[in-house]
Amino acid sequence: MNQPVYRLRDVEKIRTKGGVSFTLRVPELTVFKGAFVSVVGPSGCGKSTLLDLLALVLDPNSWTCFTISLAGIQGTEEHDIPRLSENEAARIRRNNIGYVLQNGGLLPFLNVFENILITAELSGRRVRSQEVHTLAGTLGLSDQLSKKPQYLSGGQRQRVAVARALIHRPAIILADEPTAAVDYPTALDIRDELKHLAHGMGAAVVMVTHDQSLVREIADWEVRFDVVRESRHLTVATTRFSKADALAATSA
Q1: What does DSSP assign to residue 224?
Q2: How many Å apart are CA 239 and CA 66, to the nearest integer?
Q3: Model confidence over 115-146: pLDDT tens digits?
Q4: β-bridge mates for residue 105, sequence order
Q5: Is the distance from CB of 50 to CB of 23 less than 8 angstroms?
Q6: Prediction pTM value
Q7: Distance (Å, rounded) from C-alpha 3 to C-alpha 55?
Q8: Are strands 36-40 and 221-231 parallel, antiparallel or unpaired?
Q9: Is 235 helix (H, G, I), strand (E, B) or coil?
Q10: What is the pLDDT of residue 251?
Q11: CATH classification at residue 117
């Protein structure tokens, strides 16, 4: 867990809408290979903005360091994220990042098997049918592969979203409130599956949630937010990055 995947220092993102401005400041954040990082906070604190920065969807307004390190032809290659071209950023997203959306984001006209396979097809990675069946079995979806999303429960749809994010074996898994639409036992299952499958692949996992109790026992590192409303038109959120309570207690 000592190989950095992301390194952020003094990263700032400003978002403005309708004359109201929100600023996210990230003084320091390092995401390690094989680590499970929880991003915890209430609605509007900047969780999704941070995830969009890590997903290379948003560009920062300012930064001292913002890099991503990935396996390349000649070993690990470090990329300066804000200086990537749109094509380079799209290639990294497609090949190296698995994104689990809050609502699953499944395509309604495809069945479960096809929904799982689509990210691998888009990345150009050849995936054997058996790989899909094996992953589906691990996630309890073996008997659902021919069904369309409308015939699945909320928990099943989220499991399909997890499978789709993992099937091309990405180096990074970003999950935006993946348990928000399911009951608590199912949320625990999805959380455990993300940790277990990701650690088995040595991937870095960043999971956003508003519920700290959900991730307190299993997170390796934690990101929290100090939010200050400086005026009616300006809110500033600053991240705090530290070892999670569970890890700190274990090593105490």
Answers
A1: E
A2: 15
A3: 999 888 877 777 888 889 988 888 889 999 99
A4: none
A5: no
A6: 0.87
A7: 19
A8: parallel
A9: strand
A10: 45
A11: 3.40.50.300
